[in-house]
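Researcher: Sequence recovery benchmark, item below. Answer with residues only.
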């Protein structure tokens, strides 16, 4: 995998967190059974996974910097 710098990861995390917030804000306005709601739920889950992976990379970078 391509190594990313800490600032790149932090900026990506900020952008994804913002997009996740906006998606979660829209979610209650959609009909639960609509295809748009299904797509939005899947996007939200993908964004959460992305944040988790970025957080893991940042934590590993901190561990390697501290050693």
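Model:
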């Amino acid at each position: 995998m391509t190594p990313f710098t800490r600032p790149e990861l932090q900026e990506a995390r900020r952008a994804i967190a913002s997009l996740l917030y906006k998606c979660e804000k829209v979610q209650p306005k959609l009909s639960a059974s609509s295809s748009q709601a299904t797509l939005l739920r899947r996007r939200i889950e993908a964004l959460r996974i992305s944040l988790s992976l970025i957080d893991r990379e940042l934590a590993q970078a901190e561990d390697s910097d501290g050693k």
